[in-house]
Write a structure and sequence with these properties.
Blueprint (H helix, E strand, L loop, with lengths): L2 H20 L7 E3 L19 H7 L5 E5 L1 E4 L3 H9 L1 E6 L15 E6 L4 H6 L3 E4 L8 H13 L13 E2 L2 E4 L1 E7 L1 H4 L4 E9 L4 E8 L2 E6 L7 E7 L6 E10 L4 E10 L6 E4 L7 E4 L10 E5 L15 E5 L9 E4 L7 E5 L7 E7 L3 H4 L7 E7 L4 E5 L7 E6 L7 E6 L5 E6 L2 H5 L4 E6 L7 E7 L9 E4 L2 E5 L5 E5 L7 E6 L13 E5 L7 E5 L3 E7 L9 E4 L3 E4 L4 E9 L6 E9 L8 E2 L3 E4 L7 E6 L10 E10 L2 E2 L4 E6 L7 E4 L3 E4 L5 E9 L6 E9 L5 E7 L7 E6 L6 E7 L4 E2 L3 E6 L30 E4 L7 H11 L7
Amino acid sequence: MTSKTIQGFVAISLLLVGISAAFADDSRPRYVSGAGADKGNCSNMFRPCRTIAYAVHQAGKFDSIKVAAGEYDLQGLDNLILLLSADVTAGYDTITHFTQRDVQRTRSQLQGVPPEYREHFENLGFQVIVDRKGKTIARSDVHQLRQKLSVSAMDHGPAACTNGSAGSFVCAGIDLLSHLSLATLGATAANDIWGYVDLNSLREYVIIGLNNGAAIIDVTEPEAPQVVSRYNGPDSVWRDVKVYQYWDAANTRWRAVAYITTETSAGLAVIDLSRLPNGTVTLAENADFSTAHNVGLLNANFAYGTAESVVGGQLLIAGADKNRGNFRVYNLASPLAPSLSTVSDTGYMHDAAPVAIDDARAASQCGDGVHCELMADFNEDSFDVWDLTPGSAPALLSRTQYSDMAYVHSGWWSEDGQLLFVQDELDELQHGLHTTLRLYHMQDVGAPQLLSLWQGPTSAIDHNGYARGNRYYMSNYMAGLTVVDFSTPQTPVRSGYFDTYPASSMAGFDGAWGVYPFLPSGTLAVSDISGGLFLLREQRPPEPSGGVLEFNAEDIWVNPGSAVPVSISRYHGSGGDLSVKLLLKTLGDGATGATLSESTLTWPHRDFSDKTVTLTLPDNAADHGPLLLTLVSPQGQGRLGVRNSLRIHPHNSASAPTLQLLETAIRVPDLQQTTRVVVARQGDISSALEMRWTLQPELAGQQQGTLRWDAGTGKPQTLELPVDAAAGRSVLSLASDNAILTSDCVWLQVDLPARTTLPECDAALPPNLTDGGTDEDGRAQTSSGGGGAWGLPWLWLALCLIARRNCRR
């Protein structure tokens, strides 16, 4: 062997080792053989393990398990549950090192299988022996398991958590608002979840990742959520989602974009959400990278996706298939076409958590002396803290490891940046721990100090989590949603839970994948791998407690140049000292001169009176968009209520009352039963307004109605109209006696050819109303609504590629 050959072999070996170390969560195979031994982690095909149960406990999330010839025992109910959610196949040949599979010649015998699951395991390649030798599973246990697994396969309506259950789900302190199963979502598995509030309509949405794409769901009425659009993507068990929202001055409206990554070769999917609630447009995927594990936003609000300073938001990509998975930062000056600005050089990043701080640490430990943008980097082997303050190069501030470390997966900051929560995805499996959440004190960001541990009552694995107020909302896999109260961070306690996976609460990779706790309504959205979407809400805390803190309204409309009193209430408690900070930020361009009379409010023991702060607005406040006043970091034994943020809308009282229609031509998918028309109120709001509407379909009867606004309110209204697919195209005619209309009609086009003449409508009917058209850069788009086929865009793309045609229209 020549020296060059040896050097090449060493280089390839090091490369493979590097890939294995960096991508420990990437579905690598585990090997089992009747001639193997239960040692190591079963990832070496030349040294397979002996039992399937051992291999399952060594496997990471979605690792495949390949089983060769041998006699195997199911070994009880717990292993049955794990195998039902694991990627296990049998019939592999050890002579070909598990590369060939022949279930007829290779005898992988599995005994102890309940009769109800015989066909399931035969389809996986096993020769099944039903309930003979080995540990027999009781018939009653099998029946109960099948009942529990069937619960998540059905949709559910509202159910209060009473005496430890909400319908068929075990719970404490958390009510079920609704549940959409995977069948309803049109998928076979779910993954990550995110959400946002559309500032045009103030409607709330969540986006849930699915094995075949994603579903966009209107959860404004959480007891009756509606799937309003879909993204069709390549099949993948991993997806991650974030949303960025920005002001379009030319069209005087907000626009929103969703960014989706996956471990399957699809690059960065960029989805224009601006047509919601009537569909979305998927732009061509960003080709800067092929796969990535995670996507995040820097300098952006978690509920609205808006930039929190004039610098603008930034997109963060973690675990891409370039530069060993180093984190990549993209500029969002053009949100539909993110541009790469920074690539780190320190190694693979699995997940990240951003926070902005303006306290004394920004003067001495990081940032520009006044402001500091921090990012926690969870990279499997440690969690690192970075200074990503705009205007300077990224700087590593600290790197931390801990005892019983197995796989440093993810975490989040408290709102004041004083605490960092750290979640390890494999410590329960590898070290026999119960669910373990680590809390670090971050007073010195260069030297994090372990403050406390919270450990749960089961061995369920913790996955992702987010802090809101003094609660940490954590997706806990087979234990569902867990809420941890860290009012006293030295001794955190569980304040509530909702078990989305009724079958078990052991250490396995099924159940709750993600949670999104930032919707202003208080709705908690949970994605469950085999259960779909759960919408939940916390109950009021039990007595005794420090009480609940809330604003007295969700929205207020104010005059620029005025001083506005804002009240905060404390209720439902027994006493104790309590304080809360108030954080004022703009949802517009970040350049507002608004001020608060106080930034912290304090209630002494047994003081339940309302507290008032004064908000002073500059004369040009209406030029900068709405403001957001948020209660953060409560101190004491109280908690934040549902109305923990207040939207403040400066309006121009000198302008004439105006009603703006966001769209004047709406494409309605042919399977969608309703369409929504959003009407925004602008200008003077001192008087009541009315808008009359008439819907004239081509082939159906006329419908009429009226929208009304009270004096002093400018909240957008949504007109929901029934759609008859046979009616074809329709015209919505509008009229008002006391407001200017930006358009007096709206086209509604069902995906069917027009057949007859419609009433006159001044709004232009675009020729591409029934297809996706192209964006401003000429890139192909795919328009998607609540119905329609998922696979057609990908079939079209495949045919284009096969024919080597130019697929850009």
